[in-house]
Amino acid sequence: MLIAAGAGAAGAVAAAPVVLATVGFTGAGIAAGSYAASLMSAAAVANGGGVAAGSVVAVLQAAGAAGIPVVGQAAVGAAGATVATVLGILI
């Protein structure tokens, strides 16, 4: 179970930047026509024309542009460890 948790944590931290870029949160900004662009559009409509600082879209774009901070990596790793552990118990 400990090995599964470690592998899940490491895998999640390694995969997170790839997933962010794949859905459109890139270092150059939000990719046109991407899932991220549709999220940004919906957030802008809901917020009266802009994306609020600290919103999910803003946080994900910051992570896509500048990388995931250590605190964020810890959260992603914990989530990955939890999922891997649960899946390991179910299998």
Description:
- This protein is mostly helical.
- The protein has one domain (2-90).
- It has 4 helices and 2 strands; from the N terminus they run αββααα.
- Strands 1-2 form a two-stranded antiparallel ribbon.
Looking at this protein, list some descriptive labels.
91 residues; mainly alpha; two-stranded antiparallel ribbon; 4 helices; 4% strand; elongated; IFI6/IFI27-like_sf
Short description:
The protein has 91 residues and is mainly alpha-helical. It has helices spanning 2-23, 35-46, 56-66, 70-90, and strands at residues 25-26, 29-30. 73% of the residues lie in helices and 4% in strands.
Helix run count: 4
Based on secondary structure, the structural category is mainly alpha
Give the quaternary arrangement of the chains.
Answer: single chain
Number of strands: 2
Q: Bin the helical content.
A: over 70%
The shape, in one word, is: elongated
How far apart the termini lie comes to 11 Å
Low-confidence stretches: none
Note the beta-strand portion: under 5%
Number of domains: 1
Radius of gyration: 15 Å
Largest sheet: 2 strands, antiparallel
**Main sheet strand line-up:** 1-2
What is the fold's blueprint, element by element?
Elements: H1 2-23, E1 25-26, E2 29-30, H2 35-46, H3 56-66, H4 70-90
Antiparallel strand pairs: 1-2
